[in-house]
Amino acid sequence: MTAPAPEATPARVIRMANVAKTYGRNGANVAALRGIDLAIREGEFVAIMGRSGSGKSTLLHIIGLIDTEYEGSYWLDGRLVSGRTAEELATLRNRTIGFVFQTFLLLPQMTILENAELPALYARDRSPQECRAIARARLEEMGLGHRLDHKPGELSIGQRQRAAIARALVNRPRVLLADEPTGALDSRTADEILDIFARLHRDGATIVMVTHDPDVAAAAERIIHVRDGQTSDGLV
Ligand SMILES: Nc1ncnc2c1ncn2[C@@H]1O[C@H](COP(=O)(O)OP(=O)(O)O)[C@@H](O)[C@H]1O
Ligand SMILES: [Mg+2]
User: Which of 83, 102, 157, 193 could be a cystine partner for 183, CB 3.0 to 4.6 Å?
Assistant: First the structure.
């Protein structure tokens, strides 16, 4: 945790240099990322925008330490994380990254309280009672205090995405990542979710949101454009 960042202040929570990723081997290769350079500062709300197939999800999965198979250099919170395995990075991911997905990915047989406390339980540094209390507090902040014992299928889609955001925030991550978080929502519900991101941003959160929709990207304070696996405006 103490390795210095590659550049001085203001803190760049995310820094990538020449990151490249090719899917597949033996002929049928897809070059999904072809040399990404980017920097994201603490407290920024950034949208990564580009057409379908441009490499946005691939990039977000690398940022989120879900995908560790790529070329190039990546520093997260000042630590070089490229070249490490997913297993080596599991603890760092649990404590540093919150991830929100287009389709929520809540576990359907569990209540939203049980869903939201899972990342806290995985962290193994609090009692089950504390984990539950933190999960309850995050869900209450998302306006779901009256739905704690409901399963995802009993909630509206907007409530499901709010529960997923609560789960993503339960360990107070350094970075909140969201892949097309409004892609499965109607426009009114989408606005509600973007309002939540704006509020979290005002409260100091660092947010990286992927979208193909310029109207959604407009909610962010900076837009990084991805085109054919490359970006020309990723650096600050
Ligand atoms: N698991 C995979 N195996 C092979 N190719 C993939 C895989 N995932 C994505 N791709 C390809 O990589 C490119 C970038 O995909 P992706 O990052 O999902 O783009 P986006 O999120 O911008 O739509 C696309 O050409 C896609 O078909
Ligand atoms: Mg995608």
Answer: 102
Q: Give the tens place of pLDDT for each residue, 178-209.
A: 999 999 999 999 999 999 999 999 999 999 99
Judge whether residue 94 has pLDDT over 60: yes
Split into its structural domains, the chain has a count of 1
Q: List the structure tokens of 221.
A: 């304070």
Q: What is the CATH number of the domain that holds 198?
A: 3.40.50.300
In a domain, 145, yes or no: yes
Is 169 a domain residue? yes
Say if 12 falls within a structural domain.
Answer: no
Return the residue whose CA atom lies nearest to atom 25 of ligand 1. Answer: 53
Residue 33: what are its φ and ψ, rounded to 5°? -125, 135
Question: Ligand 1 pocket check: which of 19, 36, 58, 61 to mutate, most ligand atoms within 8 Å of Cβ?
Answer: 58
176, two tokens: 């909140």
Please state the atom number of ligand 1 nearest to the C-alpha of residue 51.
Answer: 22
Residues 52, 54, 56, 58, CA torsion sign: positive
Six-digit token string for 23: 């899917």
Domain that holds residue 195: 43-69+83-231
Report residues whose beta carbon is within 6 angstroms of any ligand 1 atom. 23-24, 30, 32, 50, 52-58
Q: Specify the residue with its C-alpha closest to ligand 1, atom 18.
A: 57
* Shortest-distance ligand to the CA of residue 102: 2
Spacing, Cα 215 to ligand 2 middle (Å):
17
Q: Is the pTM of this model over 0.90?
A: yes
